[in-house]
Design goal:
This protein is α/β, with parallel strands linked by helices. The protein contains 14 helices and 14 strands. The relative contact order is 0.11. Keywords: ATP-binding, Cytoplasm, Kinase, Magnesium, Metal-binding, Nucleotide-binding, Transferase.
């Protein structure tokens, strides 16, 4: 079975075509700047060089049509149209309506639309991709895989905020958590690497990238995670503040005469690593600065690691132990300095890092010595494969 995985953003469309017989990638690509001048598609068919084509993409339907033509026609063709058996769509927010992936129907689309108030930048774009695919591929089954679904196993005592309950009842204000597809994939892979049944594991997943979150996975279920009502909560991120005293928001709005929209923009677009360093939101530049001895970069790395270690310690306590701490995401997979320094702060927990093993980027590896009581695992995340697996399971039913 060949499964097409689609991830629509407001002005982009990422895709992968996978052969689920052996879970290999047949082709992948991205359509950028949809609805903006200078739009293009970058496409790679396995075994061939990447191709970049400038194309006018006024909307997502045109972008999806071009994607399908790249997959099925001309020199980049790798599959016949009828050989695409199903499509899996990444959907950011499922609210409380969805605790697992579902086959897309008109009713499901309506429910996703109703969740758009909780993810106004993401769900509408996800729906554009779903609508376009259903129109272009009317006989192909479609599946929605939600970023929030994995975290629906959290207890009410964990996900409820201590504010008047009427706001939960009226607006659904509670902790939802995000990056669920990644946390699910990494925790399952960690159990395999540990050689233990998933149900018998206690795993902490650190998905560290421009957006970042930590998740406590006990017996294969999410029991706590750092992101909250929105992806703004938790760790310091590229341009997001992460956790702050909420009174800062009203204080700055009053002192600076800021609107709610302006304050939101500061916290989401002008904070985080970018604000701490005064240099960049790109941790690759921060890493280079640390190596070069730049004090601002050193301070930023220290502040970032402080938050990560704080969450790891809290989640280890919450689960009454931990078997493995996993690193995923662009930063987690590629920054050996950060992993080593975090490991050095976790020796009390039983982490014994093998420094030589840790000198790597983007490979699946146990980074610790054989004697380490708690394993530190590097597991490159694969959200597309997780989406494809869920799609196959539902379509097979």
């Amino acid at each position: 079975m060949n499964v097409l995985v689609v991830n629509c953003g407001s002005s982009s469309l990422k895709y992968q075509l996978l052969n689920m017989e052996n879970e290999s990638v047949i082709a992948k690509g991205i359509c950028e700047r949809i609805g903006i001048d200078g739009s293009f598609i970058k496409h790679t068919t396995e075994g061939q060089d990447s191709v970049k084509v400038m194309v006018d993409f006024p909307n997502h339907k045109v972008a999806l049509a071009k994607m399908l033509s790249m997959l099925t026609e001309g020199e980049t063709a790798c599959v016949k149209p009828e050989e695409i058996s199903a499509v899996g769509h990444r959907v950011v927010h499922g609210g409380e309506k969805f605790n697992q992936s579902v086959v897309i129907t008109d009713e499901v689309e309506k429910a996703i639309e109703e969740c758009s108030a909780l993810a106004p930048l993401h769900n509408p774009a996800n729906l554009l991709g779903i609508d376009a695919c259903r129109e272009l591929m009317p006989n192909v089954p479609m599946v929605a895989v939600f970023d929030t679904a994995f975290h629906q196993t959290m207890d009410k005592a964990t996900y409820m905020y201590a504010i008047p309950q009427e706001y939960y009842e009226k607006y659904g204000i509670r902790k939802y958590g995000f990056h669920g597809t990644s946390h699910k994939y990494v925790s399952q892979k960690a159990a395999e690497m540990l050689g233990k049944p998933l149900e018998e594991t206690k795993i902490i997943v650190c998905h560290l990238g421009n957006g970042a979150s930590v998740c406590a996975v006990d017996g294969g279920k999410s029991v706590e995670t750092s992101m909250g009502f929105t992806p703004l909560a938790g760790l310091v991120m590229g341009t997001r503040s992460g956790d702050i005293d909420p009174a800062i928001v009203t204080f700055l709005m009053e002192k600076e005469g800021l609107s709610a929209k302006e304050m939101d923009n500061i916290l989401n677009k002008k904070s985080g690593v970018d604000a701490l360093s005064g240099l960049s939101s790109d941790f690759r530049e921060i890493e280079d600065g640390v190596v070069a001895g730049d004090p601002a970069c050193r301070f930023t790395m220290d502040a970032y690691q402080h938050r990560v270690v704080s969450y790891i310690g809290a989640y280890a306590a919450l689960m009454n132990g931990v078997d493995a701490i996993c690193f995923a995401g662009g930063l987690g997979e590629n920054n050996a300095i950060m992993r080593e320094e975090i490991a050095n702060m976790l020796t009390w927990l039983g982490v014994d890092l093998d420094v030589e093993k840790n000198k790597c980027r983007g490979v699946e590896r146990d980074l610790t010595k054989e004697t380490s009581k708690v394993k530190m695992l590097l597991i490159p995340t694969n959200e597309e494969l997780m989406i494809a697996r869920d799609t196959v399971t539902l379509v097979a039913k």
